[in-house]
Structure formats: C-alpha cells, structure tokens
Input
Amino acid sequence: QVQLVESGGGLVQAGASLRLSCVVSGRTFSNYHMGWFRQTPGKEREFVAAISADGGNTRYADSVKGRFTISRDNDKNTVYLQMDSLKPEATAVYSCGMARQFLHVTNWRGLGIDYWGKGTLVTVSS
Output
C-alpha cells in the first residue's frame, strides 16, 4: 500500500518560513519523481515545484522561484519544500505527488501523477 504523508503546514505571518515534508512508503522512493502542488477552495490544483528521482533536476512555478526550494532525501524516503518569504497568496493545501515520468510532476495540474498525499494546510496571514 502506497502512502504519502505530508506535514509541516501551519499558520504563519507574511514573510515567515515553513518547511513541508512528505514521507513516502510502499514504493521504491528513488524510482519516482516528486512534485508539490497546492489548491485553494474554488480553484484548481496548481503546480508549485518538482524534483527528479535522483534529485538532479528541479522545476518551479514562476510565482515561487527564488523563495521556495524543493529537495529530497532518498535514504529517508522524503521530499521537502522549503518556503521562505511567504506571502498571503501562498495560503493553500499543499500536496505531494509521485510519478515515474517527470512530465507528470511538472505539468500545471499534476495530470498523470501515480500517487497523491492528502495534503497539509498552509495559512499565511497578512
């Protein structure tokens, strides 16, 4: 059984930092590309960041470039999202997804992702 469990969300003020984690079990983590996506009520899910299976390739949405950093630890089966200089518009539920094809973790809606976590809520107050 595949499980992706996110943690690290919370309520912070604008300008603060948070680090999200996503722990994967049930599959060989190092075989999968990983992505972070977010969604707010009434809006579609959107791409935030992605990292290749070996960690050598990363992608970011323009809205987070320079402020968010994705990383992974294949020994710990964990992918991270370091979020700095948070803005109120970053408020959303953040979910991680995993896929065997990099395209599936880098397209805007996460189409083709094999497995999803349930998400962790990030709230940024102004």
About this structure: The helical segments are 102-106. The CA atoms of residues 68 and 83 lie 4 Å apart. The first helix runs from residue 102 to 106. The mean pLDDT is 97.
